[in-house]
């Protein structure tokens, strides 16, 4: 089976500083892949290259079979993206936000109408459909942002710290949505600082100073490092990092 994401010595430098240093990994189709690392490790820089938002300095990567150096428009059509920083329009209603983002991907009116009611039902937001997004609690906004990011049924969705700042119960609900998306065949690439979320991933990569310090299933990582939790795996790896402030 073709991989959803492949990278080979993918590198990004800013002047003399190497933010992402020759990373090589594969993400399988349908996999939930956690992308961890301390602050400044290079996660966002790597993710931006994979989303076609920034060109690699050297090395190669493909996303949904397309080259990140030459086929960025095709990549953008094949992926969904959600980050805490790039989110919904607070001064549009729930329904208007859905319609706006679905329109960008050129979906038909019938598709948008039918899928909007399914999404509102799934999120139990039917009664809020015509309320401004700005009035919703943060956890609901994030669930809605995720549903909007996969509304056009992309092959891969990139989530950049999607659950930052919400309580554990809402995070758990958010992860139920991730599992459902993965069940529908969408590959999930997710960065997080929460180690309980790392446990929910099929495989996890941990970046240290621009390189991949470790990559395996949570179970495999715990065995390799001889510890009982992802927290301890992370601490063991991050302790050797030079860039981290945490
Ligand atoms: N445009 C840029 N110019 C110069 N340096 C940059 C640029 N973008 C990122 N960096 C540097 O590259 C390093 C990696 O940053 P990046 O944002 O990728 O880390 P991160 O792992 O996503 O961290 P965080 O968890 O804090 O978001 C940092 O030292 C950062 O200062």
From TrEMBL:
The keyword Nucleotide-binding applies. It comes from the Bacteria. The keyword Transcription regulation does not apply. GO terms for molecular function: ATP binding; ATP hydrolysis activity. InterPro entries: AAA+_ATPase, ABC_transporter-like_ATP-bd, P-loop_NTPase. Residues 5-234 form the ABC transporter domain. Keywords: ATP-binding, Nucleotide-binding. PANTHER family: ABC TRANSPORTER G FAMILY MEMBER 20 ISOFORM X1, ATP-BINDING CASSETTE, SUB-FAMILY H, MEMBER 1. This is ATP-binding cassette domain-containing protein. It comes from Hufsiella ginkgonis.
């Amino acid at each position: 089976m073709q991989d959803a994401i492949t990278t080979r010595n993918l590198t990004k430098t800013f002047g003399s500083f190497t933010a992402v240093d020759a990373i090589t990994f594969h993400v399988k189709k349908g996999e939930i892949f956690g992308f961890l690392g301390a602050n400044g490790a290079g996660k966002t820089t790597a993710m931006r290259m994979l989303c076609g938002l920034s060109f690699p300095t050297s090395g190669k990567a493909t996303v949904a079979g397309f080259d990140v150096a030459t086929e960025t428009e095709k990549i953008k059509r094949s992926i969904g993206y959600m980050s805490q920083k790039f989110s919904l329009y607070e001064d549009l209603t729930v329904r208007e936000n859905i319609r706006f983002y679905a329109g960008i991907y050129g979906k038909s009116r019938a598709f948008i109408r039918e899928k909007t009611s399914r999404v509102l039902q799934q999120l139990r937001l039917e009664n809020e459909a015509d309320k401004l997004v700005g009035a919703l609690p943060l956890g609901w906004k994030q669930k809605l942002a995720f549903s909007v990011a996969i509304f056009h049924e992309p092959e891969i969705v990139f989530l950049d710290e999607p659950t930052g700042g919400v309580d554990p119960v809402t995070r758990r609900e958010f992860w139920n949505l991730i599992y459902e998306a993965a069940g529908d065949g969408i590959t999930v690439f997710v960065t997080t600082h929460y180690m309980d979320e790392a446990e929910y991933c099929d495989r996890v990569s941990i970046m240290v100073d621009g390189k991949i310090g470790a990559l395996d299933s949570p179970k495999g990582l715990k065995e390799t490092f001889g510890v009982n939790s992802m927290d301890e795996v992370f601490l063991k790896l991050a302790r050797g990092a030079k860039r981290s402030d945490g």
